Give the backbone structure.
Amino acid sequence: MNRAHTITTTTIDRWLLPHIGGTLAYADQHPAFAWTLATWLAEESWSLTPTTEVTPSSYLMPADSDQAEDILDWLMNELSTHPEARIARSLMVTWANNYESPQDLLIGVEGLALTGFPLGLTSKKKQKSQLQIVVNQAWQKTQTFSKLAEQTHDLSQKLIADELRKAGGKIDSLHPDTAEWCMATAQTKLYETDHADLKTLRATAETEGLHHLAEQFEGTITMIAISPNVKDTFVTDLVAD
């Protein structure tokens, strides 16, 4: 007799699942990192429960091995300290159960080939995390420079405050790119576009699980803030010059 399973995701599941999707997609393309991930997961005793499929977003995939390891460290810490993230844990377990380790893992490091010992590859200098804000062109013309600066600053602070709430108020539980933005760089990239593009940006962010925050006035989107943990190509890919 077949039984239907109801999959109930918790708040922490919904926060972590998109980032897990991006990390697993990176692992599927990078054998050395996949070996590291499988090794870490082998040490856990998480149970396998009915889970949900996650379509990975390219905007949440790590850019290189260093970033992948930072994000993995963050994810494993969050999953270890949140037993209620059963769906997120199960997605990781499912990936690990399907993982097949290559017999010989060849990794080039400064011209050398090492077998079966997955070291992180030397990567390019990491680009600093940026928070992206996209402003409605028509609405912007109605604002003074000082008022616009104040409102974009307020929106960025609301976005970071929301992530901090998801992290239980602990800076060290923030996504590593967001933590870097808070403690080191605090760089913000400002764009402007029309309302149609803003609607596309918001819809794509919602579909792909990208953390964002939108402000509206009389039914019109005035601004959207995009988290520092989203690749900074997100806006330029979707908004025409």
Observations:
- The two ends are 57 Å apart (CA to CA).
- Residues 130-238 form a domain with the Bit1 fold (CATH 3.40.1490.10).
- Confidence is low (pLDDT under 50) at residues 1-5, 106-125.
